[in-house]
Design brief:
The complex is a heterodimer of chains A (248) and B (336). Helices cover 79% and strands 0% of the residues of chain A. Chain A has 248 residues and is mostly helical. In chain A, α6 (97-117) packs across α13. Chain B has 336 residues and is of the alpha/beta class. In chain B, β9 (218-223) and β10 (226-231) form a beta hairpin. The chains are: A mainly alpha (248), B alpha/beta (336).
């Protein structure tokens, strides 16, 4: 266990240094901050919304940014290892492939944790404007972090199959977008017209969006957290399968 | 290359101890059989040269020995530890330089070596010492803070080599360690291998046959996934077609053709082959192949006596020890 922690730490550290010595992390974080705060002020109408909560003015838009930007963080994780051939170095070190997988995933979710923490001024803004209920805000942030981490995990799994970052990016965006749209109210309404209610519920249950919206409303349901964690775990398992397949 | 290297535990082991044991190793990619049921052992302190044409299965074999590829069948054991059963313990004993020296381009040399040390479980002062020693051994001090993507090919290779020796492993597996280097760098790496080989077990693959002669205690030639030859470089060389032939240069007052005719009449001579390309007066250059390798000595004295009696002047005479590249070509061409 001690060895696992040591190895995971070493891999996470390397990946974090790689993110922050190249422009990639900065570019993604800056874009994310600009669009997320920009949308909440201009599109979300934060000033005049008349409600000191962030559910519809801020959190509601985040999934769309995650869908595009999270794969940009995750795409290099294994694609680069394949392209540079360093996967051969990594996997002939006395570490378990799981240490590398978990280490890489943690590094990319730390990038998102940093990005989300940097949006905190928007919380100060609503605190200045009114008296917001901090419960939904905190659970919304947790949901946003889990959402971004899920997208990163999905793109990491896809990057384990390819050496091309751009292929990984496109496929990951498509998969994350699909998983998000499944629970989007308008899409659910469309499904309602065609399919029986219980089937639609089942489909919407698979969506990242519906679980996220629950959490932004302050309904911190164990079920939603469990859902995001299982998306992450399944993605890590798929990553492991892809890596094994390349070596078998 | 400089730097003192610790004597690893291999000294404590009996001379014939098998550090690497490969049993019936097979690797299949789809329908293609890359490595076909090969077995061999490498003892303590052996430096084994791995030879073979491109695509013969050298890299695939090395990747299975280092635990990167899972064998389709057969097994590898490293110092008695089965690679499939206890991969981490087995990998600890190996330092590996993969083909083309892959590196993380976004790191500096120093941070890369520190990362390698971390994964090897080194920490604190042991880590600092190990990194320093690897930098020194591979002459990387001048570029230690340089980003890897700005390094020349020679430095890249040495950085990856430094990574492989950072934990002072008992076993080194080097896949084409001199590929793409200039002659000076090749000589440096070759010297380093020879020096590391004094206290370690090494397998390295190469296309360059002089390297095998210069650095190996044993060579294996592999072709189409099978071992086709295994022995010391000297043993392998005697398998060359013209190994043992007597090469001569004889100046004669008459013509070269006359000398050739006289040589052909010698009792121990099987065949004479002339290397004269055009008019060179009365000088004959070529070789005389003896009737069997054991007759070579007798043939040499016959040539000498012939020259004495006929008044030829013998300006050159030596026995061809056999050339490894002749053996290599002869062996790896069969069955085409």
């Amino acid at each position: 266990m001690e060895i696992a922690v040591r190895n995971i730490k070493a891999v996470t550290k390397r990946e974090l240094v790689a993110y922050f010595t190249s422009p990639i992390a900065y570019v993604i974080i800056v874009i994310f901050l600009l669009v997320s705060t920009g949308f909440s002020f201009w599109v979300g109408d934060l000033w005049d919304f008349g409600d000191a909560s962030l559910t519809w003015t801020f959190f509601f838009f985040l999934p769309w940014f995650f869908v595009v930007l999270a794969p940009a963080v995750g795409m290099r994780l294994w694609a680069d290892e394949h392209r540079q051939g360093t996967i051969e170095l990594m996997l002939t070190m006395p570490i378990h492939p799981w240490h590398a997988i978990v280490g890489k995933f943690l590094a990319s979710s730390v990038v998102w944790a940093i990005a989300l923490l940097l949006t905190w001024p928007i919380v100060w803004t609503v605190q200045y404007l009114g008296d917001p209920d901090m419960g939904p805000i905190l659970s919304g942030y947790l949901g946003a972090f889990l959402f971004a981490s899920s997208c990163v995990a999905i793109s990491m799994a896809i990057s384990a199959f390819t050496r091309s970052q751009i292929t990984c990016l496109l496929i990951s965006v498509a998969v994350c977008l699909g998983l998000t749209l499944l629970g989007y109210p308008q899409i659910v309404d469309q499904f309602m017209k065609m399919l029986p209610a219980n089937v639609v519920d089942g489909i919407a249950d698979l969506s990242l969006m519906s679980h996220f919206l629950d959490m932004t409303k302050g309904v911190l349901v164990f079920r939603d957290i469990l859902y995001f964690l299982s998306v992450i775990v399944v993605s890590l398992l798929v990553t492991n399968i892809a890596i094994r397949a390349k070596r078998a | 290359m400089s730097g003192s290297l610790r004597t690893p535990a291999s000294d404590r082991r009996p001379k014939n101890y098998e550090m690497i044991s490969v049993q019936n190793l097979t690797k299949r990619f789809g329908t293609k059989l890359a490595v076909n049921d090969i077995s061999f052992q490498v003892g303590v302190g052996e430096v084994l040269g791995f030879l073979g044409p491109n695509g013969a299965g050298k890299s695939t074999t090395m990747r299975m020995i280092t635990g990167y590829f899972e064998p389709t069948a057969g097994h590898v054991s490293i110092d008695g530890i089965n690679m499939s059963d206890e991969p981490s313990r087995a990998k600890e004993k190996i330092g590996y330089l993969p083909e083309n020296a892959p590196l993380y381009d976004d790191m500096t040399v120093l941070s890369f070596l520190k990362f390698a040390a971390d994964l090897r479980g080194l920490s604190g002062s042991a880590k600092t010492t190990a990194v320093d020693k690897a930098l020194e051994t591979c002459f990387l001090k001048p570029v230690r803070n340089q980003s890897i993507d700005t390094l020349s090919k020679g430095y890249r290779h040495r950085t990856c080599l430094a990574q492989s020796i950072i934990h002072d492993p008992e076993i080194l597996i080097l896949d084409e360690p001199t590929d793409g280097l200039d002659p000076n760098q090749k000589a440096e790496v070759r010297n380093l291998i020879r020096r590391l080989g004094e206290t370690r077990t090494i397998i390295f693959s190469t296309h360059i046959l002089e390297e095998v002669e210069a650095a190996c205690t044993r060579a294996i030639i592999i072709d189409k996934g099978k071992i086709v030859a295994d022995g010391t470089p000297e043993e392998l060389k005697t398998k060359a077609v013209d190994a043992g032939a007597i090469e001569v240069r004889i100046d004669a007052p008459s013509s070269a053709a006359a000398v050739e005719a006289e040589l052909g009449k010698l009792a121990s001579a099987k065949r004479v082959s002339s290397k004269n390309l055009g008019e060179e007066g009365g000088a004959f250059t070529g070789c005389v192949i003896p009737k069997g390798k054991e007759k070579a000595g007798k043939l040499a004295s016959e040539i000498f006596e012939l020259c004495m009696s006929k008044g030829f002047s013998l300006t050159e005479l030596h026995q061809n020890p056999g050339r490894l590249d002749d053996v290599f070509r002869a062996i790896t061409r069969t069955g085409e």
